[in-house]
Amino acid sequence: MSALSNILVVEDDEDIARLLKLHLEQAGYHVAHAPDGREAIRRFDEGGHDLVILDLMLPHVDGMEVCRHIRNTPTYVPVLMLTAKSEEANKVAGLEMGADDYVTKPFSVEELMARVRALGRRVEMLSKLTGEEADQSLEFNDVTIDLGKRIAMREDDDLKLTQKEFEILKILALAPGRPFSRRVLCERAGVESFDGTDRTIDTHIKRLRAKLEPDRNRPMYVLTVWGYGYKFTDRFC
Questions:
Q1: Is the pTM of this model over 0.70?
Q2: Which domains does the chain have, with CATH numbers?
């Protein structure tokens, strides 16, 4: 079993909710169900949930508001969105709001279970870092990131990153596979826009890749999520 034990399924379609509950419980998870956004917020605030599977189209309070509520709480709980094929804009908005991943309806149960397991692996990695960051080093292939000393090395050579470059790398590397929007990276890394847009982060990424990647034109660590932002590879996890 992964780090995820208790899952809150927020879905107003009873057939889909029953299907998810059946397969998740067969896999060993404990599952609670909320049929609307208002009930989802109430149940989430009761605590004890390790993952929220969240439909965007909900009665009373929509999924975007539920996601915003979850992200405004101090404890990190991953959110897996369920969206319809026609909701491309909502996918982007949901990721911007802080959702960790999404599955498009109609979806296969196998795909959804694979996404749940992947989120579990990310949570396990993050939990290992809690309270240990000052002494923690992350290792990915030939790259080592020393969080305490705030240096990154490739094959024992200091990459000599600037503070902003290191902060961006740290944010990405602490959540391998999770996409971050340009705006979120700017906010979390303290990158100020020089042109009034969130594209300023692209300049920092370009400089980071020049130091980090063996071939900056074919990055293997800091990957582009087209039309959205960037993520750190989960290839070496």
A1: no
A2: 6-129 (3.40.50.2300), 133-232 (1.10.10.10)
